[in-house]
Amino acid sequence: MLVLLACSSKPSGTLSLVTGAETDVFSRAPAPSKLVVEALAPDGTSKTVVSVALPTSTVDLGDHTQTEVVSLRVSGQDSTGKHLVFGSSLFLAYGSLQDATFPVFVQRTGEWARMPGTLDARESPAIAVLNRRSVLVAGGSNSANAKNVTGYDLASLAALTNTAVLPRAPQSMVIENNAIVTIADDGASSFGLSDASVKAIDPPSGMTFAEVAGGDVVLGDDGTAYVVGATRSTQPPTSAVLVVSTAGVISAARLLAPRLGAAATFVVGKGVVVFGGSATGAGVELLSPKATSGTALPFKPDATTGAGASLLSGSIVLVAGGVDETGAPASARTIDMSCGASCALTPWLVTPAKLSGSHVYGLDASSAILIGDDDAGVTRSFMVTASSMAEVMFKLPRHRARSLVAPTGAVLIVGGGSSVVESFFP
Fold this sequence. Notes:
Elements lengths: L1 E4 L8 E5 L15 E7 L5 E8 L4 E3 L8 E9 L5 E6 L3 E2 L7 E8 L2 E4 L10 E6 L3 E6 L8 E6 L4 E2 L4 E2 L6 E5 L2 E6 L2 E6 L5 E4 L14 E4 L5 E4 L9 E7 L5 E10 L3 E5 L3 E5 L8 E4 L7 E3 L7 E9 L2 E8 L7 E6 L9 E5 L5 E9 L2 E7 L5 E6 L4 E3 L10 E4 L5 E4 L7 E4 L1
Parallel strand pairs: 1-5, 2-9
Antiparallel strand pairs: 1-2, 3-4, 3-6, 6-7, 6-8, 7-9, 10-38, 11-12, 12-13, 13-14, 13-15, 16-17, 17-18, 18-19, 20-21, 21-22, 22-23, 24-25, 25-26, 26-27, 28-29, 29-30, 30-31, 32-33, 33-34, 34-35, 36-37, 37-38
């Protein structure tokens, strides 16, 4: 653990660099020789706060406007500037560091690392992020605790002390308007986070909750949540999309084709992009914001099921994982959303294993991390580029775990038989 002094000219708080269960973050060869702290502003601009040689035990961050809000990015670099160690805080005001200790988890890049504290170990959980700070876990394959919601605080790097019992076990879970919206085959309810109030929710006209329960939740750039029933792996195919606004208002939308095991992601300026899951519908559909019906894009039908999707950059979306129409592992491919007619996907490599329930997280314009469950239910992850696909091993074995992107930018894996959260930075 290193300690970064927040200020030298007046009483100061500290940032503590926490390495969790990984004890050789700064000592393992190749060892970083320089520590750099950058401040990322909400508008995406960044500036270097301090750069010092390692090893060191304290670093003065200097004087800053107390009300300035930033995310502090800490990197351990070698002599060429390569990032060997990295960590990122949540967004905070410099004033919040005054006379306090704020932990930041740091880890070796390009691998999974065990974070401190614990979180529920259940398999196949429903997960969501609350207030850009906490990971909530509910649902799962064990009916005995499926209504219980627990969480992990990314600010304190510890389990939440408060737990709650939801009105129903969620197969999909959305957090909007200070409430948890729980969606299951038998209906939907909201649970108020401020007063524990419970409210039954009626389905929107022309749709049942059973059509979307278990579907992936895709978040739009304005915070709107889209529960895409077509991403489910359980029959029957469905075209239903449940839309939940930031005010908690729900409405219905439909894809043109019913799909099963499709991949979905959100592209800013476009909307929800849905790929595969149908042998007859267009290979790619687009559900624009505010639209109630999908639009077929000029890609031939693709019956791939169990894949995941993520934007890489610009108009390029990567799909990876899943199985093709013959039941063989599907190849990774890219979709060019700017294509206007007679479009084709650009092939990358075939995934080394059959993966279901896949999720893809774009890391930059040419790489992504792919996470999914193999035929035995073992959760696996792969680093994917156009010319390589290498497995990245978890530190702990997992079975039907679930993943998400944290507000810090890290990819997290939770549950699946382990109560330890693991983090990945490229």
